[in-house]
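lol ok so funny story. i was supposed to be doing the assay writeup but got distracted and ended up predicting the structure for this chain instead. priorities right. anyway since i did it might as well share w the group, maybe its usefull for someone
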Amino acid sequence: MGLWQRIKRLFRAGTGAALDRVENPEMVLQQTIRDMRDRVPELNNSVAQVMATERLLLKNKENLEKQVVDLDSKIKAAIKMDRDDIATAYIGQLQQAQVDLERTGAQVEHATNASQQALKARDNYVLNMKKRTAEAMQLISASKQAKLQEQLAQTMETFDIGDDASTFNEMREKIDRRVAAAEAKLQLGSTSVDAQMQDIEREAMDIQLQDKLLSYKQEMGMLGSGSSNDKKQIAAGAEEESSSEEKSTDQLLAEAEELLKNAKS
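and the output, tada:
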């Protein structure tokens, strides 16, 4: 192999490799689709010209047919009028019109076949274009998916799970500490002096309600029907109980105030 051929081969190989690196399959396929779509109007114009020729020949054929009928009528009229000279002239025109009609009929047949073939070719091209477009869209979608997978692979190569795991553990410990602190504050709030005072006040309110209930029962005579001494003893006992309950209430209030002072101090 000569030196020049080796240089040419090396140049072609380098050019092909450079084109492979630069060439974008998605852009090439999209341009191919645009080129195919741009050819459709050109095909429509060509088909329209063929169909226009067919219609023009059909019009000429109709005119020649009318001319033949008209000349035949004129020939018959001239013969009736004993004008053989005029009839002869019309016969010459009729023969020429018949020749033109036969030739035009053949042209019409040929133009009709050409129109049908042109329409068929245009329809086949459009059908093939739609098929190729669908295939190109699938290839473009596959190319995009491949590109995403390549990017994902590159990301996974540079992804260090150790650093992120330590970050998750650190954040988990911080959240656990915050949850524990919140639960401790909630527990302290439920056992504070204010909560104890509320319990004492609630108990004192229950004692006062019981005393009031006992007083109503005494006034309504629902505590028994004994002697007057027994009633006095019951009343005295009730007074002692009420006084002792009042003392207990006072003691509870005093204890609550003491707890409040200790809490403030």
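The mean pLDDT is 75. The longest helix spans residues 84-157.
back to the writeup now i swear
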